[in-house]
Amino acid sequence: MSKKTATLNTLEPVPGTKVWPGLLSREAQEELVATFREQIAENPLYQPTMPKTGKPFSVSMTNFGDLGWVSDRTGYRYEDRHPATGRLWPPIPEGLRALWAGLTGYDAPPEACLLNYYGPHAKMGLHQDRDEKPLDAPVLSISLGDTAIFRLGGLERKGTTQSFKLASGDVMMLGGPSRLRFHGIDRILPGTSTLLEKGGRLNLTLRRVTDPARANN
Ligand code: MD3
Ligand code: FE
Predict the structure, then answer these.
(1) 184 C-alpha to center of ligand 2: Å?
(2) How far apart are CA 174 and CA 181, in angstroms?
(3) Are 169 and 22 in contact (CB under 8 A)?
(4) 39 contacts 177 by C-beta, under 8 angstroms
Protein backbone atom coordinates (compact mmCIF):
# COMPACT_ATOMS: atom_id res chain seq x y z
CA MET A 1 0.00 0.00 0.00
CA SER A 2 1.42 3.36 -0.93
CA LYS A 3 0.61 6.50 0.96
CA LYS A 4 -0.29 9.50 -1.16
CA THR A 5 2.35 12.16 -0.75
CA ALA A 6 3.08 15.24 -2.79
CA THR A 7 6.00 15.05 -5.17
CA LEU A 8 8.39 17.86 -4.45
CA ASN A 9 10.49 19.62 -7.02
CA THR A 10 13.34 19.88 -4.57
CA LEU A 11 14.33 17.67 -1.69
CA GLU A 12 13.69 18.82 1.87
CA PRO A 13 17.11 19.12 3.55
CA VAL A 14 18.38 15.74 4.76
CA PRO A 15 21.80 15.44 6.46
CA GLY A 16 24.19 13.51 4.20
CA THR A 17 22.12 14.01 1.06
CA LYS A 18 23.12 16.59 -1.50
CA VAL A 19 21.56 17.38 -4.87
CA TRP A 20 23.07 19.43 -7.69
CA PRO A 21 20.17 20.12 -10.07
CA GLY A 22 21.26 20.33 -13.71
CA LEU A 23 24.95 20.05 -12.87
CA LEU A 24 25.76 18.32 -16.16
CA SER A 25 25.40 20.46 -19.29
CA ARG A 26 23.48 19.06 -22.26
CA GLU A 27 26.83 18.61 -24.00
CA ALA A 28 28.27 16.62 -21.09
CA GLN A 29 25.10 14.48 -20.99
CA GLU A 30 25.35 13.77 -24.75
CA GLU A 31 28.99 12.82 -24.38
CA LEU A 32 28.16 10.30 -21.66
CA VAL A 33 25.36 8.78 -23.74
CA ALA A 34 27.74 8.50 -26.73
CA THR A 35 30.27 6.67 -24.54
CA PHE A 36 27.61 4.17 -23.42
CA ARG A 37 26.46 3.64 -27.00
CA GLU A 38 30.02 2.74 -28.01
CA GLN A 39 30.17 0.16 -25.25
CA ILE A 40 26.73 -1.37 -25.61
CA ALA A 41 27.65 -4.12 -28.13
CA GLU A 42 30.31 -5.63 -25.89
CA ASN A 43 28.73 -4.56 -22.62
CA PRO A 44 25.00 -5.05 -23.20
CA LEU A 45 22.14 -4.15 -20.92
CA TYR A 46 20.61 -7.29 -19.42
CA GLN A 47 17.68 -7.99 -17.14
CA PRO A 48 18.76 -9.20 -13.71
CA THR A 49 16.52 -11.46 -11.65
CA MET A 50 15.47 -11.24 -8.03
CA PRO A 51 17.12 -13.53 -5.50
CA LYS A 52 15.04 -16.61 -4.61
CA THR A 53 11.97 -15.83 -6.76
CA GLY A 54 13.87 -15.40 -10.02
CA LYS A 55 11.44 -12.65 -10.98
CA PRO A 56 13.00 -10.28 -13.54
CA PHE A 57 13.69 -6.65 -12.62
CA SER A 58 11.79 -4.09 -14.69
CA VAL A 59 15.06 -2.12 -14.84
CA SER A 60 17.82 -3.41 -17.13
CA MET A 61 21.43 -3.01 -16.09
CA THR A 62 25.08 -3.15 -16.95
CA ASN A 63 28.24 -1.88 -15.23
CA PHE A 64 31.56 -0.12 -15.72
CA GLY A 65 34.57 -0.45 -13.48
CA ASP A 66 36.62 -3.09 -11.69
CA LEU A 67 33.47 -4.44 -10.06
CA GLY A 68 29.83 -4.48 -11.12
CA TRP A 69 26.67 -5.08 -9.13
CA VAL A 70 24.77 -8.19 -10.19
CA SER A 71 21.70 -10.03 -8.97
CA ASP A 72 20.43 -13.51 -9.73
CA ARG A 73 18.59 -16.30 -7.94
CA THR A 74 21.53 -16.83 -5.59
CA GLY A 75 21.63 -13.24 -4.36
CA TYR A 76 23.14 -9.78 -4.82
CA ARG A 77 26.89 -9.29 -5.11
CA TYR A 78 29.70 -7.54 -6.95
CA GLU A 79 31.47 -9.39 -9.78
CA ASP A 80 34.33 -8.41 -12.08
CA ARG A 81 32.57 -9.77 -15.20
CA HIS A 82 29.38 -9.34 -17.16
CA PRO A 83 27.11 -12.30 -16.32
CA ALA A 84 25.94 -12.76 -19.92
CA THR A 85 29.16 -12.20 -21.89
CA GLY A 86 31.76 -13.28 -19.32
CA ARG A 87 33.85 -10.22 -20.21
CA LEU A 88 35.41 -7.84 -17.71
CA TRP A 89 33.35 -4.64 -17.34
CA PRO A 90 34.71 -1.67 -19.35
CA PRO A 91 36.49 1.07 -17.40
CA ILE A 92 34.52 3.86 -15.73
CA PRO A 93 34.51 6.85 -18.13
CA GLU A 94 37.14 9.42 -17.16
CA GLY A 95 34.60 12.25 -16.83
CA LEU A 96 32.72 10.27 -14.18
CA ARG A 97 35.88 9.46 -12.25
CA ALA A 98 36.70 13.17 -12.22
CA LEU A 99 33.17 14.01 -11.05
CA TRP A 100 33.52 11.54 -8.14
CA ALA A 101 36.87 13.05 -7.12
CA GLY A 102 35.54 16.60 -7.30
CA LEU A 103 32.24 16.08 -5.49
CA THR A 104 32.87 13.37 -2.90
CA GLY A 105 36.35 14.26 -1.69
CA TYR A 106 36.66 10.53 -0.92
CA ASP A 107 40.32 9.52 -0.90
CA ALA A 108 39.99 6.52 -3.22
CA PRO A 109 38.52 6.17 -6.71
CA PRO A 110 35.14 4.57 -7.39
CA GLU A 111 35.28 0.85 -8.23
CA ALA A 112 31.80 0.38 -9.59
CA CYS A 113 29.52 2.32 -11.89
CA LEU A 114 26.11 0.68 -12.14
CA LEU A 115 24.06 1.73 -15.14
CA ASN A 116 20.29 1.31 -14.73
CA TYR A 117 17.99 1.73 -17.73
CA TYR A 118 14.33 2.50 -17.10
CA GLY A 119 11.81 2.08 -19.92
CA PRO A 120 8.48 3.90 -19.61
CA HIS A 121 7.04 1.41 -17.12
CA ALA A 122 10.12 0.47 -15.10
CA LYS A 123 10.42 1.18 -11.41
CA MET A 124 12.60 0.20 -8.47
CA GLY A 125 11.09 -0.74 -5.13
CA LEU A 126 12.19 0.74 -1.82
CA HIS A 127 15.55 -0.77 -0.79
CA GLN A 128 18.85 -0.09 0.96
CA ASP A 129 22.26 -0.24 -0.74
CA ARG A 130 24.32 -2.38 1.57
CA ASP A 131 26.46 -4.62 -0.60
CA GLU A 132 29.45 -2.28 -0.32
CA LYS A 133 32.07 -2.59 2.45
CA PRO A 134 33.07 0.99 3.23
CA LEU A 135 29.88 2.67 4.41
CA ASP A 136 31.82 5.90 4.93
CA ALA A 137 32.05 6.18 1.14
CA PRO A 138 29.10 7.99 -0.45
CA VAL A 139 27.13 6.87 -3.49
CA LEU A 140 27.05 9.37 -6.35
CA SER A 141 24.06 9.23 -8.71
CA ILE A 142 23.69 10.84 -12.14
CA SER A 143 20.35 11.00 -13.94
CA LEU A 144 20.05 11.12 -17.75
CA GLY A 145 16.94 11.19 -19.95
CA ASP A 146 13.36 11.20 -18.72
CA THR A 147 12.56 12.61 -15.29
CA ALA A 148 12.03 10.12 -12.47
CA ILE A 149 10.00 10.28 -9.28
CA PHE A 150 12.55 9.32 -6.62
CA ARG A 151 11.48 8.33 -3.10
CA LEU A 152 13.72 8.77 -0.08
CA GLY A 153 12.85 7.21 3.26
CA GLY A 154 14.63 6.69 6.54
CA LEU A 155 16.77 3.97 8.05
CA GLU A 156 13.82 1.61 8.52
CA ARG A 157 11.52 0.33 5.83
CA LYS A 158 8.49 1.72 7.53
CA GLY A 159 8.50 5.38 8.35
CA THR A 160 8.01 8.59 6.51
CA THR A 161 9.30 9.14 3.00
CA GLN A 162 9.46 12.09 0.66
CA SER A 163 9.42 11.99 -3.11
CA PHE A 164 10.88 14.43 -5.56
CA LYS A 165 11.84 14.66 -9.22
CA LEU A 166 15.23 13.80 -10.63
CA ALA A 167 15.76 15.27 -14.10
CA SER A 168 18.39 14.80 -16.77
CA GLY A 169 21.74 16.19 -15.68
CA ASP A 170 20.90 16.15 -11.97
CA VAL A 171 23.56 14.73 -9.66
CA MET A 172 22.84 13.46 -6.15
CA MET A 173 25.17 12.29 -3.38
CA LEU A 174 24.09 10.06 -0.48
CA GLY A 175 26.60 9.71 2.27
CA GLY A 176 27.16 9.88 6.00
CA PRO A 177 23.89 9.52 7.92
CA SER A 178 21.98 9.06 4.61
CA ARG A 179 24.08 6.22 3.27
CA LEU A 180 21.69 3.50 4.50
CA ARG A 181 18.42 5.29 3.87
CA PHE A 182 15.71 3.37 2.04
CA HIS A 183 15.07 4.70 -1.45
CA GLY A 184 13.48 3.76 -4.76
CA ILE A 185 12.08 4.98 -8.05
CA ASP A 186 8.28 5.16 -8.10
CA ARG A 187 8.01 5.80 -11.83
CA ILE A 188 9.43 7.72 -14.69
CA LEU A 189 7.67 10.46 -16.63
CA PRO A 190 7.80 9.50 -20.33
CA GLY A 191 8.47 12.25 -22.86
CA THR A 192 10.12 14.65 -20.40
CA SER A 193 13.56 14.63 -22.09
CA THR A 194 14.90 14.54 -25.64
CA LEU A 195 18.31 13.19 -24.61
CA LEU A 196 17.65 9.53 -25.41
CA GLU A 197 16.27 8.90 -28.90
CA LYS A 198 13.97 6.12 -27.74
CA GLY A 199 13.10 7.76 -24.44
CA GLY A 200 13.49 6.28 -20.99
CA ARG A 201 15.95 7.05 -18.26
CA LEU A 202 19.54 6.11 -17.49
CA ASN A 203 20.85 6.32 -13.95
CA LEU A 204 24.49 5.89 -13.08
CA THR A 205 25.68 5.21 -9.56
CA LEU A 206 29.34 5.46 -8.66
CA ARG A 207 30.41 3.44 -5.64
CA ARG A 208 33.38 2.33 -3.63
CA VAL A 209 32.92 -1.42 -3.00
CA THR A 210 36.01 -2.49 -1.05
CA ASP A 211 37.61 -0.72 1.87
CA PRO A 212 40.64 1.20 0.55
CA ALA A 213 42.38 0.78 3.93
CA ARG A 214 42.44 -3.03 3.65
CA ALA A 215 43.76 -5.34 0.96
CA ASN A 216 41.66 -8.24 -0.36
CA ASN A 217 38.40 -7.50 1.38
C1 MD3 B 1 19.87 6.78 -1.29
N2 MD3 B 1 19.17 3.57 -8.15
O3 MD3 B 1 20.95 1.55 -8.23
S4 MD3 B 1 19.96 6.49 -7.53
C5 MD3 B 1 20.40 1.77 -7.13
O6 MD3 B 1 17.69 6.15 -9.91
C7 MD3 B 1 19.37 2.83 -7.05
O8 MD3 B 1 18.34 4.19 -10.53
C9 MD3 B 1 18.16 4.58 -8.23
O10 MD3 B 1 18.78 3.00 -6.04
C11 MD3 B 1 18.06 5.02 -9.66
O12 MD3 B 1 20.66 1.17 -6.09
C13 MD3 B 1 18.39 5.71 -7.30
C14 MD3 B 1 20.02 7.42 -6.06
C15 MD3 B 1 20.52 6.73 -4.86
C16 MD3 B 1 21.60 5.88 -4.92
C17 MD3 B 1 22.11 5.33 -3.76
C18 MD3 B 1 21.54 5.63 -2.54
C19 MD3 B 1 19.94 7.01 -3.68
C20 MD3 B 1 20.43 6.46 -2.50
C21 MD3 B 1 22.06 5.12 -1.34
C22 MD3 B 1 21.50 5.46 -0.14
C23 MD3 B 1 20.39 6.28 -0.11
FE1 FE C 1 19.79 1.93 -4.44
Answers:
(1) 7
(2) 9
(3) yes
(4) no
Tens digit of each residue's pLDDT (9 = 90 or more) over 116-128: 999 999 999 999 9
Task: Give residue 101's region: left, alpha or beta (phi > 0; psi -120 to 50).
Answer: alpha
Q: Does residue 2 belong to any structural domain of this protein?
A: no
Question: Is residue 146 in contact with ligand 1, taking CB distance under 6 Å?
Answer: no
Determine contact, residues 78/66, Cβ cutoff 8 Å: no
pTM for this model (two decimals) = 0.96
Q: Is residue 89 part of a domain?
A: yes
Within-domain flag for 1: no
If one counts the domains in the chain, the total is 1
Indicate whether residue 206 lines ligand 1 (CB < 6 A).
no
Q: Considering the domain boundaries, does residue 5 fall inside one?
A: no
**Structural domain containing residue 154:** 11-215
Nearest bound ligand to the CA of residue 123 = 1
Kindly report the protein residue whose alpha carbon is nearest to atom 13 of ligand 1.
184
Q: Are 122 and 188 in contact (CB under 8 A)?
A: yes
CATH number at residue 45: 2.60.120.590
* 26 confidence band (pLDDT: 50, 70, 90): very high
Q: What share of the chain is helix, strand, coil (3-state, %, to 5)?
A: 15, 35, 55
